[in-house]
């Protein structure tokens, strides 16, 4: 069983989906993976945008990161999403999506 602040987890997912829509012209996929014997639930948000080089994936979690934007924003979405995820026993990481694009993973610890 996982006790979370549903409003905060909803905000995490909203931020990730908005970010994916901002950087991708294609569809955005949201997947909820059930917990297993070795891991907690996993939320995956995948886009088919240009992706992000591995060396930049951690830097985007710094508030005000100067990644070129295709829409308005202050660069606070990902840092806030990670803080909220961690406040709810999860971590937010970025990965190359299979087939191209970017995958954001919100992985909850074992309950």
TrEMBL record:
By what name is this protein known?
histidine kinase
Q: Which domain of life is it from?
A: Bacteria
Q: Sorted alphabetically, which Gene3D superfamilies does this protein's record hold? A: Histidine kinase-like ATPase, C-terminal domain (3.30.565.10)
What keywords are annotated for this sequence in UniProt?
Kinase, Membrane, Phosphoprotein, Transferase, Transmembrane, Transmembrane helix
Question: Which regions span the lipid bilayer?
Answer: none
> What PANTHER family has UniProt attached to this entry?
SENSOR HISTIDINE KINASE TRCS, SENSOR HISTIDINE KINASE YKOH
Which residues are in the Histidine kinase domain?
1-111
Q: Offer an example of a GO molecular function term for this protein.
A: kinase activity
The record, for SUPFAM superfamilies, names: ATPase domain of HSP90 chaperone/DNA topoisomerase II/histidine kinase
Q: Which InterPro entries match?
A: HATPase_C_sf, HATPase_dom, His_kinase_dom, TCS_sensor_his_kinase
So what does this thing catalyse?
A: ATP + protein L-histidine = ADP + protein N-phospho-L-histidine
In short, the EC number is 2.7.13.3
């Amino acid at each position: 069983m996982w006790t979370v602040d549903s409003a905060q987890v909803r905000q995490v997912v909203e931020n990730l989906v908005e970010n994916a829509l901002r950087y991708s012209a294609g569809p955005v996929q949201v997947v909820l993976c059930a917990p297993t014997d070795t891991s907690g639930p996993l939320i995956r948000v995948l886009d088919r945008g240009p992706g992000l080089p591995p060396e930049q994936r951690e830097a985007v979690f710094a508030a005000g990161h100067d990644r070129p934007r295709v829409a308005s924003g202050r660069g606070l979405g990902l840092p806030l999403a990670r803080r909220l995820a961690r406040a709810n026993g999860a971590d937010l990481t970025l990965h190359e999506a299979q087939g191209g694009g970017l995958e954001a993973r919100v992985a909850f610890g074992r309950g």
